Amino acid sequence: MHTSEKIVLIVEDEPILTKLYREKFEQAGFIVEVAGNARQGVALAKRTKPDIVLLDILLPEENGLYFLQEVRTDRVLADLPVIIFSNYRNTIIEESAKRLGVSEYITKANFDPDEVVDKVKKVLNL
Question: What are 46-93's pLDDT values in tens digits?
Fold first, then answer.
């Protein structure tokens, strides 16, 4: 399957990062959906059935783990690949995310946008 048929859902509350990553993924041929918080992300995931999610941990109201818990209990979304994409590093959070089946846990500051697009392609075997 070509990237133009793949949907990436970005759950991120920083508008500048959202805009940057939306542009990068669209340039790479992905369809991009964006949610500014975990609850919106869950609703959007249920509606659009994305192929992969880029998920921030620190979000307004509920955090990224809330999103993970919700999608993992949804029959249709249970196996949805999720990449944690955050500058927040915390061993307990990382272990919880791994238990909830995240594909990768990457630190924003250590990756440029092209590397993140490459990670997504790798997880999707593109």
Answer: 999 999 999 999 999 999 999 999 999 999 999 999 999 988 777 888
Tell me the domains of the chain and their CATH numbers.
Answer: 3-118 (3.40.50.2300)
CA 50 to chain centre: 10
Buried b (16+ CB within 10 A) or exposed e, 74-90: eeebeebbbbbbbeeee
Q: What is the DSSP string of 15-79?
A: HHHHHHHHHHHHHTT-EEEEESSHHHHHHHHHHH--SEEEE-SS-SSS-HHHHHHHHHTSTTTTT
